[in-house]
Design a protein that fits this description.
The chain is of the alpha/beta class. The chain has two domains: 135 residues, Alpha-Beta Complex (Aspartate Aminotransferase, domain 1), CATH 3.90.1150; 200 residues, Aspartate Aminotransferase, domain 2 (3-Layer(aba) Sandwich), CATH 3.40.640. The protein has 15 helices and 13 strands. The strands form three sheets. The chain has a seven-stranded mixed β-sheet, sandwiched between helices. Strands 1-2-11 form a three-stranded mixed β-sheet. It is globular, with a radius of gyration of 22 Å. GO terms for molecular function: pyridoxal phosphate binding; transferase activity. It comes from Deinococcus koreensis.
Amino acid sequence: MSTSLSERLNAELSSLRESGLLISPRVLDAANRARTRVDGREVVNLASNNYLGFADHPALKARAAEYLEKWGVGAGAVRTIAGTLRIHEELEEQIAAFKHTGSALVLHSGFTTNQGVLGALLREGDLVISDELNHASIIDGLRLTKATKKVYRHADAADLERLLQEHDTDGLKLVVTDGVFSMDGDLAPLDALVAVARKHGAVTYVDDAHGSGVMGESGRGTVHHFGFEYADDVIQVGTLSKAWGGVGGYAAGHANLRQLLINRARPYLFSTAQAPATVGALAAALEEVQRDPTLMERLWDNTRYFKAELARLGFDTMGSVTPITPVLFGEPAAAFEASRRLFEQGVFAVGLGFPTVPRGSARIRNIVTAEHTRDDLDHALQAYQTVGRSLGVTAA
């Protein structure tokens, strides 16, 4: 007798509940800012990716309203039929100029960008070697291709070289890595990785979802941070939903990359174009980050202060060097309980367990932003001190 839908759903949910991994997202009752209202409680928000405070920024809202009024609610079609508005192409030119690449294309999310670009580039006979901690969207994107797939140890250029030596091909060779790793907050060693890739004739593919708007001059990203802009053998992809405050994804690189993706990237070919208001907000964000250097200065000042104080209190931040600041608890039950107690203290910081992070490394991931004040951070640190003591995680 076959399994009914109710049986399958109940069994899966029961399994998640029994393992302590069942998620029930909290609901925001106000705009996603450094201080907001969640489930009826005023909180300091350490859970968002709103690095530069753009999600509710006046300049972005004004441009969104302007584009909404002029261009309407939606584009009305997929890009390849009748959905490419002039503002779409202007945004892509703006991104290419900002990223110092030959071309750029905007898709609907960072997740679908990885699916679309990897699917368009890779074919049977190609070789792709991916960092073991790469984002789920990369893993899923690679599953859709017929390329030979290998995984190298996290951020280990020597292991990457070993795999390139052991597995050669006459096809395309692609080395794939996050720029900033979203759960640990560490940087890919692009200086070493690109050198190894070039030695073996491989292209480097960098998902810079958490590096764009955070790393490099004016937030140009991790590729810029390591000095590889203008490089035709480096592909940059990422999201427009984190530092840029909107939604969407981008792919930037070789001058011909855009044209290939227009013809081959399935998420681009079969999805209605981005709404004009979103395009306007993103265009304003790219202008604002270059106009106001204090945005990134505040982001990094806050990052350094928060990390130093967490370390002083005795928390393990897992070697993070970016605004992503994990606090390690080990088991999911401890991380989720710490998150609950922090919320009672007026701090919104979410616990993460398997499969989002490896087993035994459950944590709370904190992200400070340019919008946080020192009072916000001190409030959060006091809450961490109280919770750490109550759970026996720290003695401070």
